Amino acid sequence: MSANVEYLKCVLCGRRFADGEVYYTCPDCGPFGLLNVIYKYKEIKKNFEKKLAKPPAVNENNIWRYIDILPVDESVPRTNLRVGMTPYYKPRLLGEFLGHQNLYIKDDGQNPTASFKDRASAIGVAKAFELKKEIITCASTGNAASSLAGICASMGLKSYIFVPKTAPVAKIAQLLLFGANVFMVDGNYDQAFDLCMQASEEFGWYNRNTGYNPYLLEGKKTCALEIYEQSKGALPDYVFVSVGDGCIIGGIYKGFYDLMNLGLIEKAPKLIGVQAEGSNPFVRAYRDNKSRKLVDMVPETVADSISVGIPRASHQGLNAVYATEGEFIDVTDAEILDSLKILPRYAGVFGEPAGVTSLAGFIKMKKAGRIPDNASCAVVITGNGLKDINTAISCVNKAPVIEPTLDAVKKALKL
Ligand SMILES: Cc1ncc(COP(=O)(O)O)c(C=O)c1O
Ligand SMILES: [Zn+2]
Q1: Which residues contact 221 (CB under 8 A, 6 or more apart)?
Q2: I want to staple 205 with a disulfide (CB 3.0 to 4.6 A). Which of 200, 257, 382, 404 is the partner?
Q3: Pick the CATH number of 88-112+216-394 from 1.10.3720.10, 3.40.50.1100, 1.10.1470.10, 2.10.25.10
Protein backbone atom coordinates (compact mmCIF):
# COMPACT_ATOMS: atom_id res chain seq x y z
CA MET A 1 0.00 0.00 0.00
CA SER A 2 1.07 3.52 -0.56
CA ALA A 3 -0.12 6.58 1.30
CA ASN A 4 -0.16 8.31 -2.08
CA VAL A 5 -2.93 6.13 -3.50
CA GLU A 6 -6.32 7.76 -3.13
CA TYR A 7 -8.52 4.88 -4.28
CA LEU A 8 -8.98 2.13 -6.86
CA LYS A 9 -11.79 2.55 -9.37
CA CYS A 10 -13.56 -0.12 -11.41
CA VAL A 11 -13.27 0.66 -15.11
CA LEU A 12 -16.74 -0.78 -15.78
CA CYS A 13 -19.07 0.38 -12.98
CA GLY A 14 -16.96 3.11 -11.41
CA ARG A 15 -17.17 1.63 -7.92
CA ARG A 16 -14.36 2.84 -5.68
CA PHE A 17 -12.27 0.77 -3.32
CA ALA A 18 -9.73 1.73 -0.70
CA ASP A 19 -6.18 0.62 -1.49
CA GLY A 20 -5.87 -2.93 -0.14
CA GLU A 21 -9.64 -3.51 0.10
CA VAL A 22 -9.62 -5.91 -2.88
CA TYR A 23 -6.62 -7.65 -4.41
CA TYR A 24 -7.79 -8.04 -7.97
CA THR A 25 -10.89 -7.09 -10.02
CA CYS A 26 -14.21 -5.52 -9.00
CA PRO A 27 -16.35 -8.13 -7.21
CA ASP A 28 -19.50 -6.71 -8.84
CA CYS A 29 -18.18 -6.84 -12.41
CA GLY A 30 -16.03 -9.99 -12.37
CA PRO A 31 -12.77 -10.60 -14.26
CA PHE A 32 -13.23 -7.73 -16.73
CA GLY A 33 -13.88 -5.21 -13.96
CA LEU A 34 -10.28 -4.07 -13.83
CA LEU A 35 -9.32 -1.49 -11.26
CA ASN A 36 -7.54 1.74 -12.02
CA VAL A 37 -5.21 3.13 -9.37
CA ILE A 38 -5.90 6.79 -8.65
CA TYR A 39 -3.39 8.86 -6.70
CA LYS A 40 -3.57 11.97 -4.53
CA TYR A 41 -2.22 13.97 -7.43
CA LYS A 42 -2.42 17.39 -5.80
CA GLU A 43 -0.46 16.24 -2.77
CA ILE A 44 2.14 14.42 -4.80
CA LYS A 45 2.76 17.13 -7.38
CA LYS A 46 5.19 19.35 -5.49
CA ASN A 47 7.57 16.68 -4.29
CA PHE A 48 7.41 14.86 -7.61
CA GLU A 49 8.26 17.93 -9.65
CA LYS A 50 11.15 18.71 -7.33
CA LYS A 51 12.48 15.22 -7.78
CA LEU A 52 12.25 15.35 -11.57
CA ALA A 53 14.09 18.65 -11.65
CA LYS A 54 17.29 16.79 -10.72
CA PRO A 55 18.82 14.01 -12.82
CA PRO A 56 18.52 10.60 -11.16
CA ALA A 57 21.27 9.58 -8.77
CA VAL A 58 23.12 6.41 -9.79
CA ASN A 59 21.11 4.18 -7.44
CA GLU A 60 17.92 5.86 -8.55
CA ASN A 61 18.34 5.23 -12.24
CA ASN A 62 15.40 2.84 -12.39
CA ILE A 63 11.61 2.81 -12.07
CA TRP A 64 11.78 3.55 -8.33
CA ARG A 65 12.62 7.13 -9.22
CA TYR A 66 8.85 7.41 -9.63
CA ILE A 67 7.95 5.89 -6.26
CA ASP A 68 5.72 8.89 -5.47
CA ILE A 69 3.26 7.65 -8.07
CA LEU A 70 3.76 3.92 -7.63
CA PRO A 71 1.48 1.80 -5.45
CA VAL A 72 4.19 0.57 -3.07
CA ASP A 73 5.50 2.14 0.08
CA GLU A 74 9.20 3.06 0.43
CA SER A 75 9.53 0.47 3.20
CA VAL A 76 8.50 -2.51 1.03
CA PRO A 77 11.40 -4.72 -0.20
CA ARG A 78 12.01 -4.32 -3.91
CA THR A 79 14.33 -5.76 -6.50
CA ASN A 80 17.81 -4.32 -6.79
CA LEU A 81 17.92 -5.19 -10.49
CA ARG A 82 17.98 -2.13 -12.72
CA VAL A 83 14.45 -2.15 -14.08
CA GLY A 84 13.48 0.65 -16.45
CA MET A 85 15.39 3.78 -17.47
CA THR A 86 15.97 2.13 -20.81
CA PRO A 87 17.57 4.16 -23.61
CA TYR A 88 15.61 6.56 -25.77
CA TYR A 89 17.55 6.88 -29.00
CA LYS A 90 17.26 9.12 -32.01
CA PRO A 91 18.69 6.71 -34.61
CA ARG A 92 19.85 8.94 -37.45
CA LEU A 93 20.50 6.23 -40.01
CA LEU A 94 17.19 4.52 -39.37
CA GLY A 95 15.48 7.89 -39.72
CA GLU A 96 17.24 8.44 -43.05
CA PHE A 97 16.40 4.96 -44.28
CA LEU A 98 12.74 5.36 -43.42
CA GLY A 99 12.58 8.97 -44.59
CA HIS A 100 11.53 10.30 -41.21
CA GLN A 101 14.10 12.15 -39.12
CA ASN A 102 11.94 12.80 -36.10
CA LEU A 103 11.99 9.19 -35.03
CA TYR A 104 12.87 7.79 -31.59
CA ILE A 105 13.39 4.27 -30.34
CA LYS A 106 12.66 3.32 -26.75
CA ASP A 107 14.70 0.15 -26.31
CA ASP A 108 12.97 -1.83 -23.62
CA GLY A 109 14.85 -4.96 -24.58
CA GLN A 110 17.51 -3.53 -22.27
CA ASN A 111 15.60 -4.41 -19.12
CA PRO A 112 17.23 -7.01 -16.81
CA THR A 113 15.47 -10.03 -18.33
CA ALA A 114 15.38 -8.37 -21.76
CA SER A 115 11.76 -7.29 -22.03
CA PHE A 116 9.36 -4.51 -21.10
CA LYS A 117 7.62 -6.91 -18.68
CA ASP A 118 10.23 -6.34 -15.97
CA ARG A 119 8.54 -3.04 -15.23
CA ALA A 120 5.38 -4.86 -14.17
CA SER A 121 7.08 -7.81 -12.48
CA ALA A 122 9.09 -5.48 -10.24
CA ILE A 123 5.83 -4.06 -8.90
CA GLY A 124 4.12 -7.48 -8.69
CA VAL A 125 6.92 -8.96 -6.62
CA ALA A 126 7.10 -5.93 -4.31
CA LYS A 127 3.35 -6.32 -3.79
CA ALA A 128 3.79 -10.02 -2.97
CA PHE A 129 6.30 -9.03 -0.28
CA GLU A 130 4.00 -6.35 1.05
CA LEU A 131 1.14 -8.85 1.31
CA LYS A 132 3.47 -11.47 2.78
CA LYS A 133 2.65 -13.93 0.01
CA GLU A 134 5.13 -16.77 -0.31
CA ILE A 135 4.25 -17.82 -3.83
CA ILE A 136 3.48 -15.78 -6.94
CA THR A 137 2.10 -17.04 -10.23
CA CYS A 138 1.46 -15.87 -13.77
CA ALA A 139 0.58 -17.12 -17.22
CA SER A 140 2.46 -15.69 -20.12
CA THR A 141 3.44 -16.03 -23.72
CA GLY A 142 6.97 -16.10 -22.31
CA ASN A 143 8.26 -12.64 -21.43
CA ALA A 144 6.12 -11.86 -18.39
CA ALA A 145 7.02 -15.35 -17.22
CA SER A 146 10.77 -15.04 -17.59
CA SER A 147 10.58 -11.56 -16.18
CA LEU A 148 8.66 -12.67 -13.10
CA ALA A 149 11.08 -15.56 -12.65
CA GLY A 150 14.10 -13.23 -12.83
CA ILE A 151 12.75 -10.66 -10.41
CA CYS A 152 11.73 -13.48 -8.03
CA ALA A 153 15.23 -14.92 -8.26
CA SER A 154 16.67 -11.56 -7.24
CA MET A 155 14.52 -11.54 -4.11
CA GLY A 156 14.14 -15.21 -3.17
CA LEU A 157 10.42 -15.53 -3.91
CA LYS A 158 8.93 -18.79 -5.18
CA SER A 159 7.04 -18.71 -8.50
CA TYR A 160 4.73 -21.06 -10.41
CA ILE A 161 4.54 -20.19 -14.06
CA PHE A 162 2.30 -21.31 -16.92
CA VAL A 163 3.48 -20.93 -20.52
CA PRO A 164 2.29 -22.48 -23.78
CA LYS A 165 4.62 -25.36 -24.64
CA THR A 166 5.40 -23.59 -27.92
CA ALA A 167 7.08 -20.60 -26.19
CA PRO A 168 10.52 -19.82 -27.69
CA VAL A 169 13.28 -21.88 -26.15
CA ALA A 170 15.29 -18.87 -24.89
CA LYS A 171 12.36 -17.77 -22.75
CA ILE A 172 12.00 -21.29 -21.34
CA ALA A 173 15.76 -21.38 -20.65
CA GLN A 174 15.48 -18.13 -18.70
CA LEU A 175 12.60 -19.51 -16.65
CA LEU A 176 14.45 -22.65 -15.72
CA LEU A 177 17.73 -20.91 -14.94
CA PHE A 178 15.97 -18.38 -12.75
CA GLY A 179 14.57 -21.33 -10.80
CA ALA A 180 10.86 -20.93 -11.50
CA ASN A 181 8.49 -23.90 -11.25
CA VAL A 182 7.34 -24.14 -14.83
CA PHE A 183 4.20 -25.69 -16.30
CA MET A 184 4.48 -26.09 -20.07
CA VAL A 185 0.83 -26.10 -21.08
CA ASP A 186 -0.18 -28.24 -24.03
CA GLY A 187 -2.33 -25.46 -25.43
CA ASN A 188 -2.12 -21.81 -26.39
CA TYR A 189 -1.60 -18.74 -24.21
CA ASP A 190 -5.33 -18.22 -23.69
CA GLN A 191 -5.60 -21.73 -22.23
CA ALA A 192 -2.48 -21.25 -20.09
CA PHE A 193 -4.04 -18.07 -18.71
CA ASP A 194 -7.29 -19.78 -17.74
CA LEU A 195 -5.40 -22.60 -16.06
CA CYS A 196 -3.23 -20.18 -14.10
CA MET A 197 -6.32 -18.34 -12.88
CA GLN A 198 -7.84 -21.59 -11.64
CA ALA A 199 -4.63 -22.66 -9.92
CA SER A 200 -4.08 -19.34 -8.18
CA GLU A 201 -7.64 -19.46 -6.87
CA GLU A 202 -7.28 -23.05 -5.74
CA PHE A 203 -3.90 -22.67 -4.02
CA GLY A 204 -4.06 -19.04 -2.88
CA TRP A 205 -0.98 -17.97 -4.87
CA TYR A 206 -0.51 -14.25 -5.47
CA ASN A 207 -1.59 -13.56 -9.04
CA ARG A 208 0.68 -11.39 -11.18
CA ASN A 209 -1.45 -11.53 -14.30
CA THR A 210 -1.85 -8.15 -15.88
CA GLY A 211 -5.37 -7.52 -16.99
CA TYR A 212 -6.33 -8.85 -13.56
CA ASN A 213 -3.98 -7.52 -10.89
CA PRO A 214 -4.54 -3.74 -10.75
CA TYR A 215 -1.01 -2.85 -9.72
CA LEU A 216 0.85 -4.30 -12.67
CA LEU A 217 -0.21 -1.57 -15.04
CA GLU A 218 1.41 0.86 -12.63
CA GLY A 219 4.78 -0.67 -13.39
CA LYS A 220 4.16 -0.49 -17.12
CA LYS A 221 3.29 3.17 -16.97
CA THR A 222 6.88 4.01 -16.02
CA CYS A 223 7.78 3.74 -19.72
CA ALA A 224 5.64 6.81 -20.40
CA LEU A 225 7.17 8.67 -17.45
CA GLU A 226 10.60 7.98 -18.89
CA ILE A 227 9.59 9.11 -22.36
CA TYR A 228 8.36 12.32 -20.74
CA GLU A 229 11.69 12.86 -19.02
CA GLN A 230 13.89 11.66 -21.85
CA SER A 231 12.14 13.82 -24.43
CA LYS A 232 12.66 16.73 -22.04
CA GLY A 233 8.98 17.53 -22.02
CA ALA A 234 8.84 17.70 -25.85
CA LEU A 235 6.62 14.65 -26.00
CA PRO A 236 6.39 12.71 -29.23
CA ASP A 237 3.22 13.22 -31.26
CA TYR A 238 2.80 9.48 -31.77
CA VAL A 239 3.86 6.47 -29.73
CA PHE A 240 3.78 3.06 -31.46
CA VAL A 241 3.22 0.02 -29.26
CA SER A 242 2.87 -3.70 -30.06
CA VAL A 243 -0.37 -5.09 -28.66
CA GLY A 244 -1.47 -8.53 -27.46
CA ASP A 245 -3.52 -8.41 -24.25
CA GLY A 246 -3.52 -4.61 -24.28
CA CYS A 247 -1.74 -4.20 -20.95
CA ILE A 248 1.41 -2.52 -22.22
CA ILE A 249 -0.43 0.10 -24.24
CA GLY A 250 -2.91 0.54 -21.38
CA GLY A 251 0.00 1.02 -18.99
CA ILE A 252 1.70 3.55 -21.23
CA TYR A 253 -1.55 5.50 -21.43
CA LYS A 254 -1.83 5.38 -17.63
CA GLY A 255 1.58 7.02 -17.38
CA PHE A 256 0.47 9.89 -19.60
CA TYR A 257 -2.84 10.07 -17.72
CA ASP A 258 -0.98 10.50 -14.44
CA LEU A 259 1.24 13.18 -15.97
CA MET A 260 -1.88 15.04 -17.09
CA ASN A 261 -3.37 14.77 -13.63
CA LEU A 262 -0.15 16.08 -12.14
CA GLY A 263 -0.42 19.06 -14.49
CA LEU A 264 2.89 18.20 -16.16
CA ILE A 265 1.51 17.67 -19.65
CA GLU A 266 -1.61 18.92 -21.37
CA LYS A 267 -2.35 15.95 -23.51
CA ALA A 268 -1.03 12.50 -24.25
CA PRO A 269 0.60 11.53 -27.55
CA LYS A 270 -1.58 9.60 -29.97
CA LEU A 271 -1.10 5.95 -29.12
CA ILE A 272 -0.92 3.61 -32.10
CA GLY A 273 -1.57 0.00 -31.14
CA VAL A 274 -0.01 -2.42 -33.61
CA GLN A 275 -1.13 -6.03 -33.88
CA ALA A 276 -0.23 -8.95 -36.12
CA GLU A 277 -2.84 -9.58 -38.81
CA GLY A 278 -3.37 -13.12 -37.53
CA SER A 279 -3.98 -11.95 -33.98
CA ASN A 280 -5.89 -8.70 -34.22
CA PRO A 281 -9.02 -8.50 -32.02
CA PHE A 282 -8.30 -4.85 -31.12
CA VAL A 283 -7.93 -3.87 -34.78
CA ARG A 284 -11.23 -5.56 -35.64
CA ALA A 285 -13.02 -3.68 -32.87
CA TYR A 286 -11.44 -0.40 -34.02
CA ARG A 287 -12.57 -1.01 -37.59
CA ASP A 288 -16.01 -1.93 -36.35
CA ASN A 289 -16.86 1.71 -35.67
CA LYS A 290 -14.50 1.96 -32.75
CA SER A 291 -16.44 -0.70 -30.92
CA ARG A 292 -15.74 -1.28 -27.24
CA LYS A 293 -16.34 -4.98 -27.55
CA LEU A 294 -13.68 -7.43 -28.66
CA VAL A 295 -14.54 -10.63 -30.47
CA ASP A 296 -12.36 -13.61 -29.53
CA MET A 297 -10.35 -15.37 -32.22
CA VAL A 298 -7.82 -18.17 -32.61
CA PRO A 299 -4.49 -16.37 -33.05
CA GLU A 300 -1.73 -17.28 -35.48
CA THR A 301 1.42 -15.18 -35.93
CA VAL A 302 5.20 -15.40 -35.94
CA ALA A 303 5.20 -12.81 -33.14
CA ASP A 304 4.62 -15.27 -30.30
CA SER A 305 4.42 -12.67 -27.53
CA ILE A 306 1.39 -11.01 -29.09
CA SER A 307 -0.33 -14.18 -30.21
CA VAL A 308 -3.41 -13.54 -28.09
CA GLY A 309 -6.96 -14.39 -29.18
CA ILE A 310 -8.74 -13.32 -25.98
CA PRO A 311 -7.16 -10.07 -24.79
CA ARG A 312 -7.39 -9.71 -21.02
CA ALA A 313 -7.02 -5.97 -20.78
CA SER A 314 -9.54 -5.08 -23.45
CA HIS A 315 -10.87 -2.03 -21.64
CA GLN A 316 -7.46 -0.51 -20.94
CA GLY A 317 -6.16 -1.31 -24.41
CA LEU A 318 -9.11 0.24 -26.20
CA ASN A 319 -9.21 3.20 -23.89
CA ALA A 320 -5.54 3.99 -24.49
CA VAL A 321 -6.16 4.38 -28.21
CA TYR A 322 -9.62 5.96 -28.10
CA ALA A 323 -8.73 8.49 -25.40
CA THR A 324 -5.70 9.72 -27.35
CA GLU A 325 -7.41 9.65 -30.75
CA GLY A 326 -4.87 7.11 -31.86
CA GLU A 327 -5.45 4.02 -33.97
CA PHE A 328 -5.18 0.28 -34.02
CA ILE A 329 -3.47 -1.07 -37.11
CA ASP A 330 -2.27 -4.49 -38.11
CA VAL A 331 0.73 -5.74 -40.05
CA THR A 332 1.53 -9.01 -41.76
CA ASP A 333 4.09 -11.47 -40.47
CA ALA A 334 6.24 -10.56 -43.50
CA GLU A 335 6.16 -6.90 -42.44
CA ILE A 336 7.12 -7.89 -38.90
CA LEU A 337 10.08 -9.89 -40.18
CA ASP A 338 11.17 -6.97 -42.40
CA SER A 339 11.24 -4.74 -39.33
CA LEU A 340 13.13 -7.40 -37.45
CA LYS A 341 15.90 -6.96 -40.07
CA ILE A 342 15.68 -3.19 -40.55
CA LEU A 343 16.00 -2.20 -36.89
CA PRO A 344 19.33 -3.92 -36.15
CA ARG A 345 20.73 -3.02 -39.58
CA TYR A 346 20.06 0.71 -39.29
CA ALA A 347 19.92 1.34 -35.55
CA GLY A 348 21.98 -1.41 -33.92
CA VAL A 349 18.96 -2.43 -31.87
CA PHE A 350 17.85 -6.06 -31.98
CA GLY A 351 14.22 -6.82 -31.22
CA GLU A 352 12.15 -9.99 -31.09
CA PRO A 353 9.19 -10.27 -33.52
CA ALA A 354 6.61 -8.83 -31.10
CA GLY A 355 9.20 -6.27 -30.03
CA VAL A 356 9.46 -4.82 -33.53
CA THR A 357 5.80 -5.11 -34.53
CA SER A 358 5.50 -1.52 -33.34
CA LEU A 359 8.14 -0.49 -35.89
CA ALA A 360 6.34 -2.42 -38.63
CA GLY A 361 3.26 -0.36 -37.77
CA PHE A 362 5.22 2.87 -38.02
CA ILE A 363 6.66 1.86 -41.40
CA LYS A 364 3.24 0.92 -42.72
CA MET A 365 1.67 4.23 -41.71
CA LYS A 366 4.66 6.20 -42.97
CA LYS A 367 4.55 4.48 -46.36
CA ALA A 368 0.83 5.17 -46.60
CA GLY A 369 1.60 8.88 -46.13
CA ARG A 370 -0.39 8.92 -42.93
CA ILE A 371 2.24 10.53 -40.70
CA PRO A 372 3.03 14.21 -41.20
CA ASP A 373 6.71 14.73 -42.04
CA ASN A 374 7.35 16.92 -39.02
CA ALA A 375 5.54 14.68 -36.52
CA SER A 376 7.76 13.17 -33.85
CA CYS A 377 7.28 9.45 -33.43
CA ALA A 378 8.45 7.17 -30.66
CA VAL A 379 8.53 3.44 -31.26
CA VAL A 380 8.67 1.18 -28.21
CA ILE A 381 10.72 -1.97 -28.74
CA THR A 382 9.30 -4.29 -26.12
CA GLY A 383 11.60 -7.31 -26.23
CA ASN A 384 15.16 -8.20 -27.19
CA GLY A 385 15.93 -10.19 -30.32
CA LEU A 386 17.90 -12.84 -28.45
CA LYS A 387 14.59 -13.99 -26.98
CA ASP A 388 13.65 -15.74 -30.21
CA ILE A 389 16.83 -16.49 -32.04
CA ASN A 390 15.34 -19.15 -34.32
CA THR A 391 13.03 -16.64 -35.98
CA ALA A 392 15.88 -14.14 -36.30
CA ILE A 393 18.19 -16.70 -37.92
CA SER A 394 15.48 -17.72 -40.35
CA CYS A 395 15.45 -14.16 -41.74
CA VAL A 396 19.10 -13.93 -42.81
CA ASN A 397 21.44 -15.61 -45.26
CA LYS A 398 24.09 -17.96 -43.93
CA ALA A 399 27.61 -16.53 -43.54
CA PRO A 400 30.29 -18.31 -45.62
CA VAL A 401 32.50 -20.81 -43.80
CA ILE A 402 36.17 -20.35 -44.73
CA GLU A 403 39.52 -22.05 -44.13
CA PRO A 404 41.55 -20.33 -41.35
CA THR A 405 43.97 -18.70 -43.86
CA LEU A 406 44.47 -15.21 -45.25
CA ASP A 407 44.14 -16.64 -48.75
CA ALA A 408 40.68 -17.83 -47.93
CA VAL A 409 39.78 -14.31 -46.71
CA LYS A 410 41.14 -12.84 -49.98
CA LYS A 411 39.14 -15.33 -51.98
CA ALA A 412 36.01 -14.51 -50.04
CA LEU A 413 36.69 -10.78 -50.61
CA LYS A 414 37.16 -11.62 -54.30
CA LEU A 415 40.61 -9.90 -54.28
C1 LIG B 1 7.80 -8.34 -26.49
C2 LIG B 1 6.36 -8.07 -26.22
N3 LIG B 1 5.76 -7.10 -26.94
C4 LIG B 1 4.46 -6.80 -26.78
C5 LIG B 1 3.68 -7.50 -25.90
C6 LIG B 1 2.23 -7.15 -25.79
O7 LIG B 1 1.85 -6.71 -24.54
P8 LIG B 1 0.35 -6.83 -24.10
O9 LIG B 1 0.02 -8.31 -24.09
O10 LIG B 1 0.31 -6.25 -22.75
O11 LIG B 1 -0.48 -6.10 -25.09
C12 LIG B 1 4.25 -8.53 -25.12
C13 LIG B 1 3.45 -9.33 -24.19
O14 LIG B 1 3.79 -10.44 -23.85
C15 LIG B 1 5.64 -8.80 -25.29
O16 LIG B 1 6.25 -9.76 -24.59
ZN1 LIG C 1 -17.35 -2.82 -11.15
Answers
A1: 251, 252, 253, 254, 255, 258
A2: 200
A3: 3.40.50.1100
Q: Is 242 in the pocket of ligand 1 (CB under 6 A)?
A: yes
Strand order in the sheet with 158-164: 181-185, 158-164, 135-139, 206-207
Of 34, 106, 116, 271, the residue with max ligand 1 atoms within 8 A of its CB, to mutate for a pocket test, comes to: 116
* Whole-number average pLDDT of the chain: 95
Q: Ligand 1: does its nearest atom lie under 6 Å from the Cβ of 107?
A: no
Check if 316 has its Cβ closer than 6 Å to any atom of ligand 1.
no
Residue 132 has φ and ψ, to the nearest 5°, of 55, 40
Average pLDDT (188-203) is 93
Q: Mind listing the pLDDT tens digit for each residue in 243-268?
A: 999 999 999 999 999 999 999 999 99
Return the domain boundaries, the chain. Answer: 5-66+115-207, 88-112+216-394
- Average of pLDDT values for 207-221? 93
CATH of 5-66+115-207, one of 3.30.565.10, 3.40.980.10, 3.40.1380.10, 3.40.50.1100: 3.40.50.1100
Closest ligand 1 atom to Cα of 117: 16
* pLDDT tens figures, 14-42: 999 999 999 999 999 998 899 999 999 99
